[in-house]
């Protein structure tokens, strides 16, 4: 690959296209079958020769065909049994048994934790609003195509991204291809929402615009509707986020003065005490009391300091914290992120004391019992109440 921000896909190699007789067995005529040529550059560039590729939305197996074509092993997961059978036939016809290409039927979110470590996750994300047959059937409960609402669709994507961290090796790559949609008369920013979810769980790295040759027509003045001849390849890595430690400490010191009582623990706390770390701090972990009024006050203070709040990838606000006493303990943590115009980032994870995450669990791993020192580590005099 080169550093062009786009990849022009103009023709498909007949050697790798889905055979017509197999396409005809699909209820949609395989209209959503991805291009092998779309996947080949990412696999060749991001997956080492002895590595492994995972496609959690295998569909018709185009990613596995691409892996076969460039000499990489692959794993495909597909929830629809008919498409699993079709993919296996497609691979069998190509003799794709070296390197081996494995096809599993099931829900990728449920299967991810049991998979071997992979070097690259690469997939076309199913699009929202597809009229999937038998969408109300319980057998399709895990089928993204069958999602009844966009919020439910994004929730399923968020849970999948969380699960993928179990099988994507540290430093491995995540490339998800998606396009913004029109559902009825509504514009749906699927690609942009997906990028936000990816950035919450992984370190977002880059994008590529995938451009296809499609027929265009002149539009009536005053009307504007795209022929959707492009999509986004969204690129992230399984790496810790890079934070500005000086800015992070300044924020924590100001927060301690405004709202004392939180416990600092995790990697940043240990870094402050020069304790061994496997990697540099990627955030600051704070434990807050389960007091909705205090949580709302802290959230309000953070918003005033320019932080964006999320709860498991979904936007959150101080106003929601004040009225979410029943929700927050269930979700147990909030994330606050601030990026300034110099590119300095501060990330805070705010954990709430609940049945799963309480002070008794956290304190054995905490460095400071009461907030944090109001001075740089080099100026610490004596112990800082180490646990």
Walk me through what this model shows:
The longest helix is centred in the middle third of the chain and has 15 residues. β5, α6 and β6 form a beta-alpha-beta unit. The strands form three sheets. The chain has an eight-stranded mixed beta sheet, sandwiched between helices. The protein has a six-stranded mixed beta sheet with strand order 11-12-16-15-13-14. It has a two-stranded antiparallel sheet with strand order 7-8. Helices cover 30% and strands 24% of the residues. With 387 residues, the chain is an alpha/beta fold. α2 packs across α3 and α6 runs parallel beside α7.
Give the topology.
Elements: E1 6-9, H1 20-23, H2 36-46, E2 52-55, H3 62-69, E3 73-78, H4 81-94, E4 101-105, H5 108-111, E5 118-124, H6 150-164, E6 168-178, E7 181-183, E8 186-188, H7 190-201, E9 203-212, E10 230-237, H8 245-258, E11 263-265, H9 266-272, E12 284-288, H10 292-304, E13 308-311, E14 314-316, H11 318-322, H12 328-331, E15 333-339, E16 345-352, H13 359-362
Parallel strand pairs: 1-9, 2-3, 2-5, 3-4, 5-6, 12-16
Antiparallel strand pairs: 6-10, 7-8, 9-10, 11-12, 13-14, 13-15, 15-16
Helix pairs in contact: 2-3, 6-7
Summarize the structure.
The protein has 13 helices and 16 strands. The protein is of the alpha/beta class and 387 residues long.
